[in-house]
Each structure stands twice: as structure tokens, then as C-alpha cells.
Amino acid sequence: MGALRFVPSWHPLLNKTIHELGLAIEDVTMAPTGKGDTLYYLRGKHMSYSELPVKAPYNIPENYRIDYDTLNWQIYMNFTTESSRSETLTSENKQYIKSLDGVDLYMQSWDIFSGKFLDKETTAYIEDAAGYDDGFAGTSAAQYVPRSKQSEWNSARFKTITKGFQALPTTMLEQFLNESVKHRFYRNHHLRSIKRNQNGMYLITFQPTETVAGITSDVQGSAARTMCARKVLLAVPKLALENIDWDVLNNDRIRDILTKSLVSIHGTKMFFGYDKIWWRNIEKSSSSIVSDTHLRATYDFVNLQSKTTPKAVYMIAYPDLSNEYWRLAQASGNPVPGVGDKSLEMTNTSVNIARNYLSQIFNVSMDDIPSPTSAVMSIWDQYPIGAAWYAWAPGYKMEEVESTMLRPSTTEEVYIISNTFNRNSGWTEGALEVVEKVLKLI
Fold this sequence. Notes:
Blueprint: H1 12-20, E1 25-27, E2 39-42, E3 45-48, H2 52-55, H3 68-79, E4 80-81, H4 91-94, E5 98-99, H5 110-117, H6 120-130, H7 151-154, E6 159-161, H8 167-179, E7 189-196, E8 202-212, E9 215-218, E10 225-229, E11 232-234, H9 238-242, H10 252-260, E12 262-265, E13 268-274, E14 288-291, E15 297-299, E16 312-317, H11 323-330, H12 348-362, E17 374-379, E18 389-392, H13 398-406, E19 414-416, H14 428-441
Parallel strand pairs: 2-14, 11-19
Antiparallel strand pairs: 1-6, 2-3, 4-5, 7-8, 8-9, 8-10, 12-18, 13-16, 13-17, 14-15
């Protein structure tokens, strides 16, 4: 339900860690379909990727009716001024690229950038056909800077851990505990406060908690526990950090960075289980589908197919920022079979809404979309995680934010080692990069 894939050449630290832990990896592959072309369903119209320029139901200028990735690159080239522009921009100089009015992209949002240089219909077309919303939702325009024609992404060979990505943290934890009898790991302890005593030691207070049906709450009647430490390493996401009682986090500059420099992306994943792979027999079926419905992205991964039975799991939806819609859908109806984890449970209301969207996308009747034998959904929006990943807000320089938040106070031995403030915050690689940087500081 969480991390799905990585690219060894993009994620060298992660790749090295996986191999050093002895974890097997395998290819993440899409199901073979017809021409292998992505299906788009936008404003009630069906088209393939190659048909977008001609069939996209948007009133855009004729000179924009070109290959979608080429259009993105052309907009960047036409409306930004950067002498060192090239098709292989480094992450270090992306945020310094200026728009034609001379304003650095990181200082303005995509809304402002598109409002200056694009018409409303072209903007809607670019956003709808993207499949994901995080690059447009109040984020810095630097977030939008495209790879040239997406060639790097399209040619990437994605890998995954055979046992699932959860095997990475659990194996690392096992190694940590086996390394010394002094090592301890405590589950369900909510960090409440960090205080420093006169001896320079840190008093760290935890409240014991319990998790029931995916909801974590304080253990009633259980007293808080305090531990002592010389140094503190916080592998804590943004929302949880905001709620820690530590005076450094109340510093005006640090509080501003903590609460405003990032946009929390509330990713959602929805999977339906079936006894047979019915969808590949649908005429319009494709391994990759983009729609402007609340499903947004639909994927048919071969990896989610049983090797011994006809059973398979279909990734029905992968939207970001649509969590409020699905939360409302989940509030009505009755539970349907899942996987025994109440936190992933879906209702028949949300299942039927998803089936209805599929019927529109495939251009078939609702009766042709069978009810799943099981269904699960996860939405990353609740405390303490709060987000699936983060996007950069306008007005903040990425490298300055990261260097500041690694060690928010130069007089304190408290370090933040989550990937929250790393430019790779959407990937596990970002967390490992931050660990390496902090190790050099301590």
C-alpha cells in the first residue's frame, strides 16, 4: 500500500542498502496491452496518448496541439529565462530558473506562473492530463519544471523488493536489535516533549499509545514516561514535528519553515481483488489509465497477478489531493471484505463509486464492472504521518530549508533525520540521504 518501486541508477543509497541487507528485488512491470499506449479519459472523451493533440477536448491554441511532453518542455523553454538551460537540468539549479518577468520559479506558484503565460484551457489541459496533481496544488513553479519529453521516466526500469518494501525497515530493525543486547525498540510511544536540564542532558517524554483499527490514541490511565539522552535523532514527519513541545520549534524562523515551506500531499491508493482478470478483455483496457475522475491514475501491474491461480489485484486508483472526496465516500455505506486490517477497509459506497468511474472510463455499463471479492484503500492524511509525500511551497529555497532543518539549532544536539525536508522527499532515497548528512554532523 505504501512504497512501490525504485530505480537503481536514481537511488544508489537505497539500492546499496537493499543489497547489503540481502533482500531480493524484481522488476515492476505493467501488463501487456495492445499498442501499449496510455488511455486518457478527459471531459467525457476517450483517447490514447498519441491522440491527445488531436482529440483532447480543450479549447487550446493550435500551436499547442502537439505531443504532450513536448508541449510541457516548450512552455518551459518559451516562458523562462536561464542562460544555462539544457535538457538535463540538475536539481541544484532548477529552483533558480527565472520566468520571463525575471522572478525565480521557486518564488512563485504554478498558479501564478500559468496565469502569467498560459490561457485557462491550456492550463486545465496540462493539469488534467498529468495524472497527478501535486505539481500544481499551490506548489512552487520550480516543482513543475519538466524533464525533456519525460524520456528519463519513460525509459526507467523500475524495481521493487520481492517481499515488499516493508521488508526494508523490518530487516534493518532486526539487524539493529541483533547487533547488541543493549539496543531497544519500543512501539506505540508518542513523543510529546524535549527539554534540556542544567547538565545539558535531554529529557524526552513519551506517552504510551495503542492502535486500534488504524487509529492511534493514548492508553487511558497510562502515565507518561521520560528518558534521558545526550543526543536526539528525530525520524519524524512534518505533522508530528509540529506537535512536539520543543522550544526550538517555536523559534519564528523555524516555525515558519516547519509549517509553510512544504505542501503535504495526501496520496491515496485503492486496490480491488478479483478471482479472474476480467479487465484485460475490455476493448479500451490499458495497463496505464489517466482520467479526470477521482480515480486519476489506474494501473494494471503484472506483479499483482498470482503466478499459480487466475486471481489478481487491480490498482483502481492512485489520486493525490482527492482525499476529502474519498473520506466522504467512506463515511457512508457498509464495510466490504478486505484483508483483515480495519484501517484499510472500504465501504460499498466508495467501491460502487469507483466501479461507476471505471464504467465511464471503459465506456461500458456498470453491470460489466464486477464487484470485487475484496477491496482496500489507504489515504495518507491523518496524524501522525499526515502526508504521502511533500511538494515545495513557493518562496522557499530547497537547499536552505534542508540544511536548516537537519539541525534546527546550532547549540542543540537534536537532529531531524526524516526525508521531510529533503528534495527527494517522495522517495526512500531521500531518507537515506538525510541520514548520511546527519552522520557527518554528529
